[in-house]
Write a structure and sequence with these properties.
By secondary structure, this protein is of the alpha/beta class. It is built from 9 helices and 7 strands; from the N terminus they run αααββαβαβαββαβαα. The chain is 36% helix and 11% strand. It has a 7-stranded mixed beta sheet with strand order 1-7-6-2-5-3-4. The N terminus is likely disordered. Belongs to the 1-acyl-sn-glycerol-3-phosphate acyltransferase family.
Length: 301
Amino acid sequence: MVSNKPSRLSACPESLPRQSSFIEPAVRNPFEHKLQLHVLAKIQVVIFSLTLAPIRFLAVLLALLLAWPLAWLATVGRGIKDHSQPLPAWRRSLFISPLKLLGQWSLFCMGLCPLRIYGRRASPAEAPLLVVAPHSSFFDVVVPLAAGLPSMVSRAENCSIPLIGCLLMSTQPLLVWRKDPDSRRRAVKEIQRRAMAAENWPQVLIFPEGTCTNRSCLIKFKPGAFIPGVPVQPVVIRYPNHLDTVTWTWQGSGAFKVLWLTLCQLHTSVEIEFLPVYVPCAEEKNDPVAYANNVQKLMAR
């Protein structure tokens, strides 16, 4: 006799896809960004690709070409030993100040306006480190320009990029070599040395997430920047736009597509908020992981 009672395996209809029974995660995949353009947005991209975007691209390229000799003059004649000392005041006033103006001009040419800045940027004596998050795009370069061209932690390979490498060196960066296991440890010591030095070093800007996300959440901060135990100023960056063309993630549009789509927008709003300086307690100074987690929680509010 054959029973008509369905078994446990056959109780669920075979036509129901397995993935349909899954509950959507509360937090999006932070490394994925799918940009979907509606019809009017596509028409705008086509029109501006033939008119506005090429003009903007050439204007930005011109700004880079003008900035390169200034960056070269700011560092020319400085040997390896000289890089252990900050740039003299006369070099910064003659070359770095014009670089800031050219940087602001290039932001305007790319349509990154209005640029709204909230809060007060702390001095290097108050906060040797600027901690910026969320890091979602190469357009985050607006933060260094708004912060007066501080030093940055960067891969040493970036110094060989035409035009960009010379501009990077003019900010007196902390270089990290991927193939050198002791490179990061030396960078941490250099941050601590600059923070304690009597010389007038610029602030060091760090993206503690270490990679680009879609700003749906803050991923875990890497503790390296917090090992020195010095005060930091958290800086939050936002792009409050209806269409998000600036986000550059692992699973998403390529760099040139992100750049071109952004150039094809009438404008791209940017907000930068300088939060109060965070001074670590004794426990946080001894535990950089806890220090990093507490700053992350503060910035995620």
